[in-house]
Design goal:
Length: 214
């Protein structure tokens, strides 16, 4: 209800302007073949019901890399960048890089001040909220749970979900972000904070060790 209210107050033009600013509806430019743009509502044909759905994440489709890239922009100070899979090309048997991908600036999406507010909110989700399962003592972990209904034949199927969790660490200077999803988990519990957050925690612990983060 909260997100629906915000969406209706913003109006479809402003809400979808933010969607596109965060990179939804267009390719990220990642160095992988066959990237999809995803699908967004046509704002010329939607009404308040579709607007309300879009405000809490339903109706539009996005790719995992789009979602993670947008999350990064929300917490890194407000900058959308081009993601890369390949770090660079090197000479075998040496530590010499003959080519290295550099972070490519795309655009500013939100202000640094707003980004700090978002980062603080996501940190509280893990510290005090629905994703306590991702909490790591001594680290400022943040994140967001997701529970998406699955459409079958043009309608959402009851009891069929994709559960997901996006984790970030550390929130005051993000170095790691990850998105983990599970299609229709075989469990009576259908809450991402309970099922997905602990798995994300394990991945973060390994990444923290590899990167030697304090």
């Amino acid at each position: 209800p909260g997100f629906m209210t915000i969406g209706l107050r913003l109006g479809k033009e402003k809400l979808f302007r933010y969607f596109r600013a965060f990179g939804f509806g267009e390719k990220t430019g990642v160095d992988l073949l066959g990237e999809s743009t995803g699908i967004l509502f046509d704002i010329d044909t939607i009404g308040n019901v579709e607007l309300a759905n879009a405000a809490f994440g339903q109706g539009n489709t996005v790719t995992p890399i789009q979602l993670l890239n947008a999350t990064n922009a929300a917490v890194n100070g407000g900058i959308l960048n081009t993601p890369y899979v390949l770090k660079g090309f090197g000479i075998p048997g040496t530590n010499t890089l003959i080519f290295q991908n550099k972070t490519k600036y795309v655009r500013r999406v939100i202000s640094e001040e707003t980004s700090l507010i978002v980062a603080d909110a996501l940190e509280q989700v893990v510290a005090y909220g629905t994703a306590r399962g991702a909490y790591i003592e001594g680290h400022r972990v943040g994140g967001k749970t997701g529970q998406a209904e699955i459409p079958i034949g043009g309608v959402y199927a009851p009891g069929k979900y994709i559960l997901s969790f996006t984790g970030i660490n550390p929130m005051n200077n993000p170095q790691i972000s990850l998105y983990l999803a599970m299609n229709q988990p075989q469990s009576y519990i259908q809450f991402a904070g309970i099922l997905m957050a602990p798995m994300v925690k394990e991945i973060l612990l390994n990444a923290i060790s590899v990167l030697n983060l304090e």
